[in-house]
Amino acid sequence: MKVSIIMPSYNPEDIILNLKEAIKSLEEVTPDFEIILVDDGSTNNGFQKLKEFNNRKVKVVGYKKNMGKGYAIKYGFNFVKGKYVSFVDSGRDLDPRQLKNFLKIMESKDADIVIGSKRHQDSKVHYPLLRRFMSKTYQLINRILFNLKVKDTQVGLKLFRKEVLEKIMPKIVIKRFAFDLELLVIANKYGFKIVEAPIIMRYRFKSTIKPGAIFWMLWDTAAIFYRAKILNWYDKH
C-alpha cells in the first residue's frame, strides 16, 4: 500500500457524497491507496450509513463516544498499511487530489512531513477576515512559544512518512483542539524535516468559532508548552 488516508468524521452532512468525491480525487493521485474513515462518536446515524458504504478502498472504524479529531486520527493510525500516511478532513474544503503535489514535494525535498499552508505564497484561499486574523495571531503565538519554522499548523491536509508517525504518535496527549500543534512540536523536537505546501481551499464550513473552542485551544496550547518547556515531558516518554 502506498498511501493511507485517515479521515476523521463527526455528524457529517452528505458524508457518502464527500467520500465518493474523495475516492475519485485520490484515484488521480495513485491507484494504490486506502481510506481509513474514523467515525468520532456521531449521533446522527452517520456511522451506520458509513458501514453500509461498500468500497474495497474504504475501511470504516469508530467508537460510540465523541473524543475529538486528535483521538480519531490516533485511533485510525492503528489500521494503516501505507508507506505514506495522510490526514484529510472529511468535508470538501480541501480536495485530496492535492496530495499528488504533496508526494512530489516529499520526494524532491526529502521531507519527512509535508503540511498544507494557507499562507504559502502559491496558495489560493478564500477565508473570512476574522478567521484570517485569528489564525495569524495563533500561529504567531506558536512561533514564539515553540520556535516552529512553519506559518500554518492547522490546515486539515498533511502527509507523513509512516515511520515518522510511529515515533510521534505514542507521545501525543492532546485529543481535541491542539492536536496538530502538538504533533508538529514533537516532530520539530526530533528534527524531522517539515515542508509547507500550497493549497487550494474552497471555503465551505458553516460553523462559527465559539468562545469555548478558543478557550480550550489556548488551554491545550499552554499544556503543550508546559510539557515541552517546563517538564521536558516529551524527552521522558
Question: How would you portray this structure in words?
Answer:
The chain has about 240 residues and is of the alpha/beta class. It is about 40% helix and about 20% strand. The chain has 9 helices and 9 strands. Strand 1 (about 5-10), helix 1 and strand 2 form a beta-alpha-beta unit. The protein is globular, with a radius of gyration of 17 Å.
Structural features:
single chain, 237 residues, alpha/beta, Spore Coat Polysaccharide Biosynthesis Protein SpsA, Chain A, seven-stranded mixed β-sheet, two-stranded parallel ribbon, 9 helices, 19% strand, globular
CATH architecture: Alpha-Beta Complex
The gyration radius over C-alpha positions equals 17 Å
Q: How many β-strand runs?
A: 9
Distance linking N and C termini: 30 Å
Portion in strands: 15-25%
The secondary-structure element order is: EHEHEHEHEEHEHHEEHH
